[in-house]
Structure prediction request, 83 residues.
Amino acid sequence: MAWYQILLAGATILLSIGITILVMLQESKSQGLSGAIAGGADNLFGKSKGRSYEDKLVNYTKYLTIGFFIITLGTTLLFLFKR
Prediction:
């Protein structure tokens, strides 16, 4: 195995672990029946007070996913056109 194969494989593994951890840390968006009944009260009394932490997690997840996609696509193209 060449050094760049090891580097790309390691980066892919680290990014996939990071994405998994960030997704597990995020709050669930589904509210179920209780959200349908009391949904207006949550918005009225400021349910989104601590959204900055949640927004950061969402942004980090987006960035890691984009990086994962680019590395995976690059790896695929590199091995596809390698001669």
Notes: The longest helix spans residues 51-80.
